[in-house]
Design goal:
This protein is mainly beta and 481 residues long. The chain is built from 2 helices and 35 strands. The chain has 3 domains: 217 residues, no CATH class; 123 residues, Sandwich (Jelly Rolls), CATH 2.60.120; 108 residues, Sandwich (Maltose phosphorylase, domain 3), CATH 2.60.420. β33 and β34 form a beta hairpin.
Length: 481
């Protein structure tokens, strides 16, 4: 089943009920479309003519090695040393456009990473028009059959490329096999639409009736991440190979230990189902043994940028550190939580990770909360009718405050002590913006706000120009005399 052409789930049917044991994210402002699929046209890939575009994807150095070997018509093996190698296969070489009837056509990619591979699997469906992966999975362990789904459009299939990776940043030659690669497609067998007013029926694990015969029940619990599953190997994200890097798993004490010297030891955990329109709390249980604490980046799968990037606090005991991930509101899904155990020079860094939890968080609801004292001191937000930049760092604001009740003016520029207004008390708002608490009425409808360092720079430039012009004028006057 596919939801809104974004999320795909395997559903199990018990009598007349469909059950989904995964988080499902639905829109509360528009219609949600559920599309069902029954049979896939299984087709093993013929790779004989599709092994030409292979090369280094990451940084190229002189000591890199790689090789590709076709083991049978739908399987291959990549060997690599100190390199990220990728095999690129255009989807137009694998799927006929005649079989793609609509945007609702669903594609299924299926393959096996056999035992014996000593690298983790990694693939991507790359869109050349967007310059990013629209579907990606990393750290795929051996002896597992990987199954992935994505929607296809006949007008866009020319832009899509299937990429298989072999990520090996070690000086030892290692190999990775992709076996029994299968790409299948399916057309819709039925669809239903759910209106926003019906969404309340999905709460508390209730059922939603599509018609007399079919019902849908959704369990949207988010579980703690399994940090100890197979598919993770020692890895580095440094531009220069570190002197030493390692990743060790202690199953008896339940933690992962990262060690690095003269570079980084890195790890990544993918959560492809999280909606970017929601906010989350990240509960990390970490310990800093020696050297620098770890850095964490929560990478947005749509923009490929860090929506959250910071250094964790140093603590020689296991401590819980809570991070807030605000909503990105780009309509996408999926995050990668990347850890960077960085070392500078000869000072080694050792850090441990014990647990990682993702907790849905009502960001906007809590941001509207306020705390009052016994006198019930309430503050209303002051509206800005018009805002105009006169000079760099100098703004004219048209405000409307007619009552004598306390109010708060929020000015969405990065907070700094250099921002000055002739009214109110300067305060920090929303952890980044400038604000002014105003107790009384404003005498003027238009007020000025300026950033003193910028204003002094502009005034200094004006004074310099005036001095230069005065000097030229005096020189000309002296020459005339």
């Amino acid at each position: 089943m596919n939801v809104n052409n974004q999320q795909t789930f395997i559903v199990t049917k018990n009598q007349s009920n469909f059950f989904i044991q995964n988080p499902v994210f639905l829109s509360t402002k528009s219609i949600n479309d559920f599309t069902f699929y029954s049979k896939f046209e299984s087709q093993l890939l013929d790779l004989k003519n599709n092994l030409k575009d292979i090369g280094i994807c990451g940084k190229e150095t002189s000591d890199q090695l790689f090789n590709i070997e076709l083991t049978n018509e739908n399987s291959f093996k990549i060997s690599s040393k100190n390199s990220q190698v990728c095999l690129k296969i255009p989807l137009k070489n694998l799927i006929s456009k005649d079989k793609l009837t609509a945007f609702e056509t669903l594609a299924r990619l299926k393959f096996l990473i056999p035992s014996g591979s000593n690298l983790a699997g990694h693939y991507c469906i790359y869109d050349t028009s967007l310059n990013r992966c629209i579907k990606e999975e990393k750290n795929l362990s051996s002896q597992n059959i990987i199954t992935s789904y994505f929607t296809l459009d006949s007008s866009l299939v020319d832009n899509l490329v299937l990429i298989f990776y072999a990520d090996n940043f070690d000086n030892q030659l290692r190999f990775l096999s992709y076996q029994d690669i299968e790409l299948s497609i399916s057309s819709p067998s039925g669809s239903y639409s759910v209106f926003p007013q019906d969404l309340y029926k999905l709460l508390s694990n209730q059922t939603l009736n599509f018609n007399k015969n079919d019902q849908l029940k959704i369990d949207s619990n988010i579980q703690q991440l399994d940090l100890f599953k197979e598919g993770h190997f020692p890895n580095t994200c440094s531009d220069i190979l570190p002197k030493f890097f390692d990743r060790k798993v202690n199953l008896s004490l339940r933690f992962i230990e990262y060690t690095s010297e003269g570079g980084s030891s890195c790890d990544s955990f993918s959560i492809p189902t999280l909606s970017h329109n929601l906010s989350y709390l990240l509960d990390l249980e970490v310990q800093n043994i020696t050297g620098l604490p770890m850095r964490v980046c929560v990478s947005n799968n749509t923009t490929k940028r860090c929506d959250l990037y910071l250094d964790l606090k140093a603590s020689n005991e296991f401590t819980h550190q809570i991070l807030v991930l605000p909503p990105a509101e780009d309509g996408g899904f999926g995050f990668d939580i990347d850890f960077d155990n960085i070392s500078i020079g000869n000072d080694s860094s050792v850090n441990r990770l014990r647990s990682l939890k993702i907790i849905p968080f009502p960001y906007y609801w809590i941001s509207e909360m306020s705390f009052t004292d016994k006198n019930d001191y309430r503050v209303e937000q002051l509206a800005i009718n018009n805002q105009k930049q006169i000079l760099p760092g100098l703004y004219s604001l048209n405000l409307s405050k007619t009552s004598s009740k306390p109010s708060l003016l929020v000015f969405n520029q990065a907070f700094g002590k250099g921002w000055i207004a002739i009214f109110g008390q300067h305060v920090l708002v929303n952890s980044f913006a400038n604000g002014w608490l105003i107790d009384s009425k404003l005498n003027r409808a238009t007020e000025l706000i300026f950033y003193l360092p910028n204003l002094l720079e502009v005034l200094g430039f004006i004074f310099l120009v005036f001095t230069f012009i005065s000097l030229i004028w005096k020189l000309k006057k002296g020459a005339a005399n």
